[in-house]
């Protein structure tokens, strides 16, 4: 009897989207009802910034990947229905940002993401 395998998270699309500054490629990795919680210097753990759904997430991705900066996927680990990845970014003036994400997957797409960002001061 044949078994039906679950869709697998596409790390190649993640890399192409991040390193190619392609928000639309990245948005294709998210479920329609996905949620992102962002913790950074402006949104502490007790009050994270929360984005719900592809429209809000797409607006954030358009903003980030529309900026004059470079992005690099440093590493990504995929295990079952979870993935974790590290992204490093640099603005032309040398300011750097490091973002780490832990994601829960459903049918090969991101359903829930926690992103922690650290910026040079």
TrEMBL record:
InterPro entries (UniProt xref): NTF2-like_dom_sf (IPR032710), SnoaL-like (IPR037401)
Span of domain SnoaL-like: 19-112
Protein name (Swiss-Prot/TrEMBL): Nuclear transport factor 2 family protein
Organism: Streptomyces thermoalcalitolerans
């Amino acid at each position: 009897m044949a078994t039906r395998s679950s869709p697998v998270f596409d790390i190649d699309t993640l890399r192409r989207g991040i390193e190619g500054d392609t928000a639309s490629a990245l948005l294709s990795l998210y479920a329609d009802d996905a949620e992102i919680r962002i913790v950074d210097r402006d949104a502490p753990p007790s009050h994270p910034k929360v984005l719900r759904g592809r429209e809000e997430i797409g607006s954030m991705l358009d903003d980030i990947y529309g900026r004059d900066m470079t992005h690099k996927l440093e590493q990504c680990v995929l295990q079952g229905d979870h993935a974790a990845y590290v992204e490093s970014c640099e603005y032309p003036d040398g300011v750097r940002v490091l973002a780490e994400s832990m994601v829960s997957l459903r049918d090969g797409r991101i359903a829930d993401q926690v992103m922690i960002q650290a910026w040079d001061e």
